Automatic annotation (TrEMBL):
Reverse transcriptase domain mapped to chain residues: 193-467
PANTHER family: REVERSE TRANSCRIPTASES
Superkingdom in the source lineage: Eukaryota
UniProt protein name: Reverse transcriptase domain-containing protein
Pfam families for the chain: RVT_1
InterPro entries cross-referenced by the UniProt entry: DNA/RNA_pol_sf, RNaseH_sf, RT_dom
Organism: Daphnia magna
SUPFAM superfamilies referenced in this protein's UniProt entry, alphabetically: DNA/RNA polymerases
């Protein structure tokens, strides 16, 4: 009966809410329809939002009140200590209600408060900020000649004309379906001067400016965020989506521009493409010149005359052109500086925080992208595709062959940016020049300003990913402190789990997508995550591990191991790159995958078994052939019954006594089994001792050979092949196998290598095109530390004695545990001019020194 009452109450409340919404629409719809001018519309909007705000606030739960005790209300049945304890309990309950309610309404704001991730406030003077704002946003009008030059640049883009349906799509008013979709996806955006929020239409975020980097007393280091009216943001979001869709379909935006585009993984595509270029240059010892360019306040410094020339050049409806002109004319910006405000009437800049600013800026920036990929740039040939430039909004990157070619492109970009009223920030620009794998020094300029040259160990952070001469693993360090902060808050357990799933892990995924995080680090983080989950769920220390990763539908927590997540992201990134629409990225990544498929292939193979599916037909170790006969070669002397008995030998290392006692073999003497096996030619032979190779191992070895078989002699001249020999006791013994003579190397007849680990003597040595290295004895057992010390003492001394200073040497070793340990890989990564050539898995015999 109670459930019926609750259901009836919910139905009544929903009906009442829908009735209230209908009454509100009936009240204000005639007022909007009666508007004839923009001023009439602004007046109606002002009165409408003023009426809507208090009505929406009545539907919200009241904020928790802070408990306040009455000093005159004395409780004689409690001493002072108990009263103090009760006050503390009430205060904790108040703090818990406060943070929990904040999380329910503004999840991202609550997360920032819990993690202490608050941007520093501006602590400079108002006069300095006002001077900067006037200089940035209030500029003199562009000369008519410069406006004409900008118009010529846009006209040379040769915009494709939209069809009649596309023109109607751009020109019609926003539909109710589009507005509902925008409102449904809108979360945590700031309110404007009308104080109407997205939690009334929905949400609130009071932050105004965010510190990027640098001194908080310098206002230029802050990124202004526009707090626009909420109704306008819904309108601009719909127009932005339409304009972006048409620009992408008609090719108004170059494929190299991936900034703020839906369904485009621009960061992954650009960073992986540049990483592949650097890796290809290093391994093939080719020429490449790359420049990373940064604009000086790009969004804030676009003169309003430039978007005007852009809209005049674009083939868009006149109504839309008039709307764009009205948006960037007659504005006033109020900048909040602590308790004071600065008022500016801007003549430059597109508003950050406005959805319409993204497509407008991308289209205004298009001449720079086309200049970067013009015919003056020969590009870098990567697996049959030319890589010339990449762009993510104002972050542009240029790739070519030589420094001279790069300087010509920089001059063209500087001239184009001057025409558009933009400037490059030379202090944040950088370039990398590699000459056959070596980074020589070269002096390049953007305009008249010199830009920084990356050294062999330097890196440039591009779209959050460091790229340079050496591609290192990046170790995130803020996850564990953030887990401690969340565990110590007064949030409810389900809210802590939600932050862990929806905020911490997605922010960590950016590192996993790069594919350069050490698995050992992820294993440690997985352990810390389980401790955190066990703490908030009040689980004992001996709680079963599968509970943390089981699906929530069966009672688990539904989390995922970071080590598995890294593999999933590797596979997902490969799928995204292979299926992207960029005509340069997709073919290059497909060819790269065929040559460097070890990481992706190993991740896919592991998880295809883990998830109980296989990419191909599954092979079984059944000794019977498809026709049901025994696969062993037999003659007519073997009877059908004896064939059945012989066919039961699944383990070829069983002796006759083992076979006689197997199920299904009744009353068969051991000597009879021996005779029948000998008659079939299956004799007892010494088992071959080798590493067991799977199909994946063979495919990896074949790919390795195909990749390096065509390398020139100069490449192998500087390759040093090294290995160590250890004399140790073996537990193998004399194991024999029943087989035919020609079946010695078959997989089922090979005995896998077993090492006992009791090493007596170990030596290290190497060879190269000029001879042999010195044979060095390794004291005690060969450990990772001993191995690295051996390389420091012998390999480095050998390189200094036989090669020129600064020459890049290729170093070959097998994939034993001490060679692939974290300590060894870290030392190799930080050793200059030493490149470790990785052999495929189970490919130690491909090292020529193994055959000496």
């Amino acid at each position: 009966m109670r459930s019926k009452n609750v259901q009836g109450c919910s139905q009544d409340s929903s009906e009442e809410q829908s009735q209230r919404g209908g009454d509100f629409a009936c009240l204000w719809a005639p007022a909007f329809h009666s508007c004839e001018t923009v001023l009439d519309l602004e007046g109606v909007l002002e009165h409408c939002t003023a009426d809507w705000l208090p009505k929406a606030q009545l539907l919200e739960d009241p904020s928790p009140e802070k408990p306040q005790g009455n000093p005159n209300d004395r409780k004689r049945n409690q001493n002072r200590q108990m009263q103090k304890a009760r006050r503390q309990i009430k205060l904790k309950a108040y703090e818990a209600r406060k943070i929990q309610r904040l999380f329910n309404i503004y999840p991202r704001k609550a997360v920032r408060e819990v993690l202490g991730d608050r941007s520093p406030s501006y602590d400079g003077t108002v006069e300095a900020a006002e001077e900067y704002l006037e200089r940035t946003y209030h500029r003199s009008s562009l000369p008519s000649q410069q406006c004409q030059s900008a118009r010529v640049l846009y006209d040379t883009c040769d915009w494709s004309h939209p069809s009649r349906d596309q023109m109607d799509f751009l020109n019609r008013a926003p539909s109710q379906k589009e507005l509902e979709a925008k409102l449904r996806r809108a979360t945590n955006t700031s309110s404007g001067v009308d104080r109407l929020e997205y939690r009334h239409l929905r949400a609130l975020d009071p932050d105004c400016i965010l510190l990027e980097t640098g001194d908080p007393s310098d206002y230029s280091n802050f990124r202004p965020i526009s707090l626009l009216p909420t109704i306008y943001k819904l309108f601009s979001g719909v127009i932005s989506q339409r304009l972006t869709e048409i620009a992408s379909d008609l090719g108004w935006l170059s494929p190299e521009q991936k900034g703020f585009l839906p369904w485009v993984h621009g960061i992954q595509e650009h960073t992986q493409l540049l990483q592949t270029v650097v890796e290809e240059t290093r391994t093939k010892r080719r020429h490449v010149s790359i420049a990373w360019l940064d604009m000086c306040n790009a969004f804030d410094s676009v003169p309003h005359a430039v978007p005007g020339e852009l809209s005049a050049s674009l083939p868009i409806p006149d109504d839309l052109r008039r709307i764009l002109a009205n948006i960037y004319s007659g504005n006033r910006m109020d900048f909040a500086l602590q308790k004071e405000s600065v008022y500016i009437s801007p003549t430059a800049g597109v508003r950050q925080g406005d959805a319409l600013s993204a497509p407008i800026f991308n289209l205004a920036f298009e001449p720079l992208v086309r200049a970067g990929k013009s015919n003056i740039n020969p590009g870098f040939l990567l697996f049959g595709s030319l890589v010339k430039t990449t762009a993510y909004a104002d972050d542009i990157d240029v790739v070519t062959n030589s420094p001279d070619e790069l300087q010509n492109i920089l001059d063209l970009l500087s001239l184009t940016s001057d025409t558009l009223g933009l400037q490059f920030n030379a202090g944040k620009c950088a370039y990398l020049v590699s000459d056959k794998g070596k980074p020589p020094e070269a002096l390049l300029r953007i305009g008249t300003q010199p830009i920084r040259c990356l050294g062999p160990d330097d890196q440039e952070t591009y779209l959050g990913t460091p790229i340079g001469g050496k591609l290192r693993f990046r170790l995130p360090t803020d996850l564990i402190p953030n887990l401690d902060k969340i565990a110590a808050t007064h949030l409810a357990p389900w809210q802590k789990l939600e932050i862990f799933r929806s905020h911490l892990l997605p922010s960590f995924s950016h590192h996993l997508v790069s594919g350069r995080v050490l698995k050992d680090c992820l294993t440690q983080l997985d352990t810390e995550c389980r401790k955190f989950l066990g703490l908030i769920c009040n689980l004992p220390n001996h709680a079963t591990v599968p509970f943390f990763y089981a699906d929530r539908r069966v009672g688990g927590l539904g989390t995922c191991r970071l080590t598995d997540d890294a593999d999933f992201w590797t596979i997902a990134r490969a799928a995204q790159l292979l299926t992207c629409r960029d005509p340069t990225v997709s073919p290059a990544m497909a060819e790269s995958l065929t040559r460097y498929n070890f990481v992706v292939d190993s991740a896919f193979r592991y998880h295809s078994i883990y998830l109980n599916f296989s990419p191909g037909p599954r092979k079984t170790n059944n000794t019977r052939s498809k026709n049901g006969n025994n696969p062993f070669k037999q003659d007519e002397l073997v009877s059908g019954k004896d064939k059945t008995e012989i066919g039961t030998i699944e383990n070829k290392f069983d002796n006759s006594a083992d076979v006689a006692f197997k199920p299904g073999i009744d009353n068969v003497h051991i000597l009879t089994i021996n005779r029948r096996l000998i008659e079939a030619g299956i004799k007892s032979e010494i088992g071959a001792v080798k590493d067991i190779l799977t199909d994946e191992h063979r495919a990896g070895r074949l790919a390795f050979v195909r990749w390096y078989v065509n390398q020139p002699i100069d490449f192998w001249r500087i390759v040093v092949f090294t290995d160590e020999k250890s004399w140790s006791s073996s537990s193998r013994g004399g194991v024999r196998v029943r087989r035919l003579k020609k079946e010695r190397s078959e997989k089922r007849n090979i005995l896998n290598i077993k090492r006992s680990g009791r090493t007596f003597v170990s030596v290290w040595g190497g060879m190269w095109s000029g001879g042999l290295t010195r044979l060095s004895r390794v004291e005690r057992n060969l450990t990772t530390v001993q191995y690295v010390n051996t390389l420091k003492t012998n390999l480095i001394a050998f390189i200094r004695a036989n090669f020129q200073r600064g020459e890049r040497i290729t170093f070959v070793q097998d994939n034993s545990r001490i060679h692939t340990a974290v300590h060894t890989r870290t030392w190799l990564g930080f050793t200059p001019n030493l490149f470790a050539l990785e052999l495929p898995t189970k490919g130690c015999d491909m090292n020529p020194i193994e055959n000496l």
